Every structure is written in C-alpha cells, then in structure tokens.
Amino acid sequence: MTDKTAIQRIKELDQERSALFEQAKEEALRRAHQAVEDLNALGLKYRLVGGEPAVGTKGVGKKGQETGQAADKKRGARPPG
After folding, report:
1. DSSP 8-state secondary structure symbol assigned to residue 47
2. Nearest residue to 49 via CA among 61, 64, 41, 59
3. Gyration radius of the chain's alpha carbons
4. What is the pTM (predicted TM-score) of this model?
C-alpha cells in the first residue's frame, strides 16, 4: 500500500518546511549583506550583527525609543546629517 499515514505526511511536511525556511533565511541574509555593502560603498560605516545581545547589555527597548523621541520634541527637530 502506497498511502502514507498522517504522521508520515506530517514528518515530510516538517522536513520540507525546514528546507524552505533555510532557503528563505539564506536569501534574506544575502540581501542584507548586499545592502550593508551598498551602505559602506556610500561611505557609511554599517555592519550586520547576528545573534542575541550579550549578557549585561541593554537593547533599545520601547522605553528608550520613547525617551529619545520625547527628548527630540523638547529640543526641537534636528537638522539632517
């Protein structure tokens, strides 16, 4: 009998999903690296960093963003550049 059980089909779908996810990740990383290279070619200093933040470091959270925006409003708009 060539019919697959539901469990076998789920396992196959999981493997296919995993392969598609890896392909999508590689494509996205390739585009991200190209974008960083383009920015650096313009004379800007950017780098792509992956992974989790190191222990003991603060990430930019919602509160930090709100504080920065509120501070800009109190000082007035900054000129670009």
Report:
1. -
2. 59
3. 22
4. 0.56
